[in-house]
Amino acid sequence: MLEIKNLQVAVEGNLILKGVDLHVKPGEVHAIMGPNGSGKSTLARALSGHPQYEVTGGEARFEGRDLLDMDPDERAREGVFMAFQYPVEIAGVNNGYFLKAALNAKRKHFGQPELDAMEFMQLIREKAKVLQIDQSMLSRSVNEGFSGGEKKRNEIFQMALLEPKLAILDETDSGLDIDALRVVSDGVNGMRNPGRAFVVVTHYQRLLDYIVPDYVHVLSAGRIVKSGGKELAHELEKKGYGWLEAGTQPVGA
Amino acid sequence: MTQVAEKLQPWMAVLEQRGTDGPRWLQDMRARAATAFAELGFPTNRDEEWRFTSVAPIASAEFQAAPSARVSLGEPDLAGFLYSGSEHRIVIVNGLFSAELSRAPNLPQGVRAGSLAAAVTEHPEVAQRYLGQLAEFNTRAFSALNTALAVDGAYVYIPDGVILEQPLQLLFVTTGAESGAPLMANVRTLIVAGDRSQSRIVETYVGPPGSVYFTNAVTEVAMGEGAVMDHYKVQEESQAAFHVASMHVHAVRASNFSSHSFSLGGRLVRNDVNAHLDGEGAECTLNGLYLADGERHVDNHTEIDHAKAHCPSHEIYKGILGGKARAVFNGKILVRQDAQKTDAKQTNRALLLTADASINTKPQLEIFADDVKCTHGAAIGQLDEDALFYLRARGLTHFEARDMLIHAFAGEILERVRIEPLRQALEAELYAQLAKDLAEIDGA
Ligand SMILES: Nc1ncnc2c1ncn2[C@@H]1O[C@H](COP(=O)(O)OP(=O)(O)O)[C@@H](O)[C@H]1O
Ligand SMILES: [Mg+2]
Questions:
Q1: 3-state DSSP call for residue B153?
Q2: Which of A126, B85, B243, B320 has its Cα between 20 and 30 A from that of A210?
Q3: What phi, psi does B420 have (nearest 5°)?
Q4: In the A/B pair of chains, how many CB contacts fall below 8 A?
């Protein structure tokens, strides 16, 4: 589903990702772990097409197509979804209106009829229940004045609505209390199926107790320095990242 | 000096031809205003209040002060402008009241809505008490010009305790000149709101699209104790027209005045709103939305004079600028020594759609009381890149995302319009203009 080869990404002229390889098949859950500043978000943003993140080498294919050649919105409509580490507040844009526009953009892309207001509300109600989302969140501006937890839940809510083929979750666990973490994880687990893949970026092993990955990769200084099964996450929990970073150059301060 | 005087020659000639009808006090006032104008001349960029707006295109042009004959307009000429949804309207054509086009059926007992010239003789005690008293002309050239030359205008009087259920629209039409120099309309409005009265007033300024003319408008609003007024100004002049207007509001105890200014048309535009909070608990809200593109210039100056204690004021001005448009926003808040417990909040934002569009802006806080709360914030810039990306990351195209953000920007002001048909008409007009601007940007 996702084939990344030797991906190199620069931000503001600094090379951050220095050759990343990753192969994700349908149905799999891959966890990307690593210390702060190792390039986890850079990977997520580059895959979703953020204009600030410049791909300077390597390739990324999604279902056989050149992902890097697509506009960010085309990637989204094709089924790549990134849950933002820091969801953006958008004053004046009604959350419900935005969700409907996003959903209909995708439906139109696949030649499906747009949902009318009734059908949309029904769908929203259904998904909101699973994620324990208060309906009032729909009438507010996108993410504006949302608590950290509300923002993260809104991201997963959008994922549930848009039903992507590939979901990249960037530190969706940070800022969540244990109850919210459970709700969000249940939401994600409920969406796992043989046709859908997840790349779960996290700094802490805690999330992986709830969303159990098939593979764990450790990103350090812009490279994947170790890959393994879910037991690698527990090892990291015990030993920290230090033993893996030895000999590699730390990124940032 | 002589150079200035020479330049003013054509204007002085116009002033000498000024109207001689009306009572003695009015003629005296016109004479004093003419003298004031002769002494002031047109403001230049050395004048702090006019630093970023040059009125040279007006000063160096020649205008006819009035058409040779009364221009007669018919109902079809007004179609499209009458969107207040109100059955009550006063129509002023080239500064003169039009009885044929105006209508105000079933107004509550005692309400007057009609010609200012008529009010001066028929309702002299009120007219004399306020006319020219709120709009100071000794330091303001355009007010002086207007005061000297206006022979008629709109008059609205709402007695104490009266509630106007329907909005009242004041429609000011300036026509193109049939021949000779372009027209100048000196448009005058006096609105007197009695104690505890309630009203919604819509001032609309229009003219034939594409034609050159000069509208010089002055509005005076006297708010009685506990009076509540929602005032809307829709400036939708020809995009080749000059529009200079000032509104002067005097608000006494516990009154509540809201101004909503929409500035969409005009080639060179200056809007002044001055609110004098002169009684305890008087409250005012100044909202504004302006749009300019091409080579157009729009200047908004607001001043809130907090003279008494416990007065809240709220202000949000927003602009959207395309092409090589230039804008000016100057928001002055004066808190006098007696105005303790003032709560003043000002926000000023502008969205620049192109690299060539620009704005000069400054808040101007002058605070002489110590127990006050004053906040102001300004944000000028392009669309938020992060917000654009967020929307695109959910499948919206660049164009859809951009439109959504621009509409959200304008929506914050539009949604405060409490006359639904007016809000819809404004939204339609604004978005049509924006669609044109954006198509130009995308084509470029
Ligand atoms: N938008 C950006 N502007 C400047 N530097 C950035 C930006 N995004 C990431 N970086 C830099 O790239 C490196 C990796 O950051 P990031 O991918 O956010 O790490 P992680 O998500 O693993 O904590 C850091 O050194 C960070 O400073
Ligand atoms: Mg990160």
A1: strand
A2: A126
A3: -55, -50
A4: 75
Paired residues of B344 in beta bridges: B313, B374
Strand partners, A53: A11
Residue B298 has pLDDT above 60, yes or no: yes
User: Residue B330 is encoded by which pair of tokens?
Assistant: 């100057």
- pLDDT confidence of residue B175: 87
Nearest Cα residue to B112 out of B72, B162, B64, B68: B162
How far apart, in whole angstroms, are the C-alpha atoms of residue A141 and residue A147? Answer: 13
Mean pLDDT score of chain B: 93
User: Per-residue pLDDT tens for A37-66?
Assistant: 999 999 999 999 999 999 999 999 999 999
B217 touches B187 (CB < 8 A): yes
Dist CA B110 CA B197 (whole Å)? 12
- pLDDT confidence of residue B76: 77
Instruction: Take residue B106 and report the two structure tokens written for it.
Output: 């079933």
The total of other beta-carbon atoms located within 10 Å of residue B351's CB is 22
Cα separations (Å) of B228 from B96, B224, B413? 28, 9, 20
| Helices marked H in chain A | 40-48, 72-78, 95-109, 117-130, 148-162, 178-191, 206-210, 231-239, 242-245
CA of B407, closest CA in chain A: separation in Å? Answer: 8
Cβ–Cβ under 8 Å, residues A92 and A51: no
* Six-digit token string for A66: 């050149």
Are the C-beta atoms of B150 and B115 separated by less than 8 Å?
A: no
Residue B6 confidence class, pLDDT cut points 50, 70, 90: low
Contact status of B389 with chain A (Cβ, < 8 Å): yes
Number of residues in chain A? 253
Structure tokens at B8: 């003013």
Q: Residue B187: beta bridge partners? A: B217
For the CA of A34, the closest atom of ligand 1 is: 22
Pocket lined around ligand 1, Cβ cut-off 6 Å: A 11-12, 16, 34, 36-42, 52, 251-252
CA dist A73 and A227 (Å) reads: 31
Q: Which of B300, B320, B317 has the alpha carbon at shortest distance from B243?
A: B300
Burial (Cβ within 10 Å: 0-12, 13-18, ≥19) of residue B79:
exposed
Q: What mean pLDDT do residues A146-153 have?
A: 90
What mean pLDDT is predicted for residues B44-49?
Answer: 94
What's this model's pTM, rounded to 2 decimal places? 0.89
- pLDDT score, position A251: 44
* CB-based burial, A133-142: b 16+ in 10 Å, e otherwise: beeebbebbb
Query: What is the Å distance from ligand 2's center to B307 Cα?
Result: 52
Q: A252: pLDDT confidence band, cut at 50, 70 and 90?
A: very low
Radius of gyration of chain A (CA): 18
* pLDDT 10s digits, A71-113: 999 999 999 999 999 999 999 999 999 999 999 999 999 999 9
In the beta sheet, which residues pair with residue B222? Answer: B192, B250
Q: Which ligand is nearest to the CA of A33?
A: 1
Question: Does the pLDDT value for residue B324 go beyond 70?
Answer: yes
What is the Cα–Cα distance from B342 to B340, expressed in whole angstroms?
Answer: 5
Q: Distance, CA A48 to ligand 2 centroid (Å)?
A: 14
